[in-house]
Amino acid sequence: MRLSEHASFTKLVAEQHFLLEAFVASLTRGRGGAELVDDLVQETISVAWGRFGSYDRSRPFGPWLRGIAALIIQARFRQEATRSRIRSGPEFESDFMDRLEVRFAAMEPSGAAERRELTAALRGCIDSLKSEFAEIVSLHYWRGMDASQAAASLGIALETARKRLQRAREQIATCLGSKGFPMSEPGPHGPDEASA
Q1: N or C: lower Cβ tally within 10 Å for the chain?
Q2: Angle at 61 between CA 121 and CA 3, to 5 degrees
Q3: What is the model's pLDDT at position 86?
Q4: pLDDT (0 to 100) of residue 60
Q5: How many Cβ atoms from other residues are within 10 Å of residue 71's Cβ?
């Protein structure tokens, strides 16, 4: 692919990265930890890049990317050893997936102004973090480093980097919710119920 296509892909992924991680985390429900979320996100991005040539540019990128993530997680889910780490029950295959995509589609910025608002809110939330969390989030989201690269850049252990990133994600999700960008999935009693 041409360099311009790679730049376009990188920009689209950067805009969707946080929502993608939140989507994957919602499916894994914390089982498997931050490492599993990171692995699934990186696999999703890799597969999406391989399929980018067939992506219809007239359609929203976020649902397309999350659709790939859902297929990857379902494939992992079929492996018995991984199944117990992600989620159990038939709702993963049908109703739960439908409700989750509706929730994330509602959070999808519909225009340039809304994307700017979300980006500004995200930056504000990052700025409110303690320095050790803010710096790893900046490396991860704005510079595109994975956990191991960020750990090497900061001179800390990989597990420390993953724990900081996980805590930062939780704090950012809470902060975004307070700014009108809720990240939790809707519970059975309505969209304001936090997931267990």
Answers
A1: C
A2: 100
A3: 53
A4: 86
A5: 12
Q: Are residues 84 and 172 in the same domain?
A: no
List, in sequence order, the alpha helices (H) in 3-111. 3-28, 33-51, 61-77, 80-86, 95-107
Give the closest residue to 34 by CA, choosing from 91, 68, 85, 104: 85
Interatomic CA distance for residues 34 and 164, integer angstroms:
10
Within 8 A by CB and 6+ apart from 111, the residues are: none
Q: Positive or negative, the Cα torsion across 94, 183, 51, 38?
A: negative
For residue 117 the two structure tokens come to: 């608002």
- Phi-psi sector, 141: left (phi>0), alpha (psi -120 to 50), beta: alpha
Q: pLDDT at position 186, please?
A: 39
Do 99 and 132 share a structural domain? no
Instruction: Name the residue range of residue 153's domain.
Output: 112-178
Q: 149 in helix, strand or coil?
A: helix
Residue 81 corresponds to which tokens in the numbers above?
């050893």
Residue listed under structure tokens 């067939």: 54
d(CA 22, CA 46): 18
